[in-house]
Design goal:
Number of strands: 4
Structural class: mainly alpha
Radius of gyration: 27 Å
Shape: globular
Helix content: 55-70%
Bound molecules: zinc ion
Strand order of the largest sheet: 1-2
Order of helices and strands: HHHHHHHHEEHHHHHEEH
Number of helices: 14
Distance between the termini: 63 Å
Length: 317
């Protein structure tokens, strides 16, 4: 059976209408899944992870659906515009992310202003919508984007202030002895290392353990040292047992935290279907028997969990 040109176009139109209807249906289902935080029990640290990994959407498609979902959640009057195609998923998502960025830089829109913006964007292309945003906030180029360019490289783009650029260059100069032609990537890597040394609980624990080991060996070494040389084995890291450690406290001893199995694979939460979360965001020690219920600060009662799963558990308590 060969369709006429006219029939082909009509057939496509019919299917596109169906596609839009089902897109809206999916968005509504997403709203409920997200509201019930079903992603947590399924072993995902966020709804986004579930949309990409469980439902199989690529990053861009997932973000468009999630952003459009947020937009129609707040302004359900635009559901039918998505269904009719007057408001494309991309434009809805762009508007939502623009509003989010604006709120982040303390330029929140009232509900009426939001509705007005969406109405202005109806029937417009993404490019026209971008121009509309630029009119409303010329600072908008500060938005950060990233996309994969190979299996292990990302292209990240964002604009920075002149001041920050000066700071980065100043730092590169100061580090000139390490690497005279340091790239911004290399500099960021160094800064991340510094930050992680300071904030990563796991690294802190490992460092403390190394210090402790050193302290144990120290006495023998100092005996062997040449008495003529000035002793530098002065222990800066000696920690006294504080009152907080004696009283029942959430404080987990370094020794205990090191006993907690850590395979470097992130969050240990496992869903009923056996999916392990593995997120490394805000990784922290979680009490298996909740601390609030008398759970001990002992390795046997501790495990590594991401911030989202750790918090969800505290909530359920
Ligand atoms: Zn997790």
């Amino acid at each position: 059976m060969k369709l006429s040109n006219n029939e082909l176009v009509l057939e496509a139109e019919k299917e596109i209408k169906r596609e839009r209807e089902s897109t809206l249906k999916i968005i509504k289902l997403f709203q409920e899944i997200s509201a019930r935080k079903i992603y947590l029990e399924r072993g995902y640290p966020s709804f986004y992870e579930m949309v990409t990994q469980h439902f199989g959407y690529c990053a861009g498609s997932a973000m468009r659906r999630i952003n459009a979902m947020k937009l129609v959640k707040e302004m359900p009057q635009f559901e039918e515009k998505i269904e009719s195609g007057e408001l494309s998923l991309s434009v809805a998502a762009d508007v939502q992310s623009f509003l989010y960025q604006e709120a982040k830089i303390e330029r929140p829109y009232s509900l009426n202003a939001k509705i007005e913006l969406v109405e202005t964007c109806l029937g417009k292309s993404r490019r026209e919508v971008e121009e509309e945003f630029a009119r409303r906030n010329p600072e908008k180029e500060k938005r950060e984007t990233q996309h994969a360019i190979s299996h292990d490289r990302l292209r990240v783009s964002f604009s920075i202030s002149k001041e920050l650029n000066e700071k980065l260059n100043h730092l590169k100069d100061l580090l000139g002895h390490v690497d005279p032609s340091m790239t911004t990537e290399a500099l960021l890597d160094r800064l991340c290392e510094l930050g992680l040394e300071q904030y990563d609980q796991r690294r802190k624990a490992e460092r403390a353990a190394v210090r402790k080991e050193k302290r144990m060996k120290e006495p023998q070494q100092s005996k062997a040292a040449n008495p003529g040389t000035q002793s530098t084995s002065f222990d800066m890291d000696a920690t006294s047992t504080s009152a907080a450690e004696v009283a029942r406290s959430r404080y987990i001893k370094v020794h205990e935290s090191l006993q907690v199995e850590n395979d470097g694979q992130g969050c240990t939460f496992v869903s009923e279907s056996g999916r392990r979360c593995r997120s490394k965001r805000f990784l922290q020690l979680d009490h298996i028997e909740l601390f609030a219920r008398g759970g001990a600060n002992e390795a046997a009662n501790l495990r590594w969990m991401c911030g989202m799963h750790n918090r969800a558990r505290a909530h359920d308590a």
